[in-house]
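Sample intake sheet
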Amino acid sequence: MDNLESLLQIKRMLKVNAYKIVLASVWLIIGLGMYALLMSGCANRGVIHGGPRDTVPPVLIVERSTPNRQVHFRPQEIILYFDEWIQLHNPTKEIFITPPLQGRYVVKAHGKRVVMTFSEETQWRDRTTYLIHFGRAIRDLHEGNPADSILYVFSTGAHIDSLQLYGRIVDVETNAPVEGATVLLYAVRKDSPAVRDLPDYMAFSNRDGMFDFQYLRDDSFHLLAVVDNNRNYRVDFEVERHGFYPHPVASSKPPDSLEVVLFPPPQNPRVLRTMKTNTALKVELSTPPERVSIQLDPPTFSFRYAVIQDTLYIIWHADAGQELERVYLRFTGRQWHTIELGEVRRTFQWPRDVRLLGSETLLTEAEKGWLLAFNQPVSWDTARIDLLEDGRAISSDKWTLEQDSASWRWKIHCPWQHTRRYQCIVSPGAWQGPSGRANPDTVDLTLPTVDARELGSYIIRMHFNKDRDASVRAGIVRLIRDEDIAREMCYTTRDSVWQVEWKYLSPGNYHFIHIEDIDADCLWDTGDWQRRVQPERIERHSLPPLRANWETVVDIYTDEREGSR
């Protein structure tokens, strides 16, 4: 009996202890979980970093790379080994070889190595020094720090050339430096340089417009630059902004200052479509023409024309029984385009009603003429027009009506007085369109005015180089506000100082543009490589702000340089 009681007591003790063990285990698990949460919260408040950010670029290990500056070398593979894992960033843009290769190559990153492999078809030039620019293409794997100034040089001949040539690329319109221009060198030969082929050397301009040729041979070169949009390392003269240095450059004795001005290609429109009526031709063009020359066959036809954006209209008149056979057009280039009237099958119609599109000229701007613009060409019966000043008729011999030859616009010229009020009364039948329809009603137009005391004026005195041998100077001057032309005029002068006064201008900030008009045609002319003609120079000058009821006098000294064209 005692033994049985002892066994039961032992069983009860074991049961209690097991319960305590289980309970203790549960509390231990809960405690560990809370500790983990607590430590996690602490970790979020104070993350341990691995030290400062890596800003050191990859370093080339020369001993483990393909030897640089080799001679008698025509590589099939070049290996560059670095001190850390690397990646390639935009290699097609950053990496280039000069002189340009005839053949393909592949550049890949493998761990700490950059491997450049050349195809078997690669055509290496004899006795030529090659330079491989890696730009900012090679970067470390994690932070992207670029390895700058990685250059690989070798020669297929017995020595490495060592001459240099550097200069600057600027824009003709702004004189600002041009970044990313492709600069090309072509060796001067007895025949015309094959500038449509790959160049002898190539470089790129940086953000300051500066370019630098290295490892050049001793030779004379033609230097051209281009905004090479299609990356073919050539100048597409018809479509790309480009420029050239006016004289051959010797790499052994380069000029002290080598600057190339980039200019736009000539705007020579293409004829897209032609339409006609019995007395008019409509020519749709690819771009608006800067200028146009027109000849008719037979030449006895009288005509007038207009340009509306990218469409040219030609209207002719001849005696009864004559027919126009063809029209000759010439735009910016020297080529004539022939339009055979008998081959023009499409027809067009003028708008049924002649509409006055606008007469928004301010009196303060009427020195250029009171502008009247229409939706089609019109002819006038000036006997049906009355011009009034403060309600009184102005004698017809004191004002004129002039057609703008380049559009459907007319201008009224008169010795305007800026304290007076002007009206133009157009009686029925005063204007008539090509269809014969005239204005059926009276039109009353008023020239808007503004208080002259709210406006200001500029007097700009231009000073030319007295020492320059120039019997006559010609140019175009523009006053610019918010990139729009506020005033413009052409000039010719024999004096060393020429002055222009622009009155009745709204207060604000302006700048002044001067274009040296070499051929005195009142048009800016771009450059021409074939004729070795530089673009007509453009100067931009800042002006002091214009204040109301104030006359601001500005002296501008022009930068005349001999032999600029």
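Comment: Residues 366 and 416 are 7 Å apart (CA to CA). Residues 41-48 have pLDDT under 50 and may be disordered.
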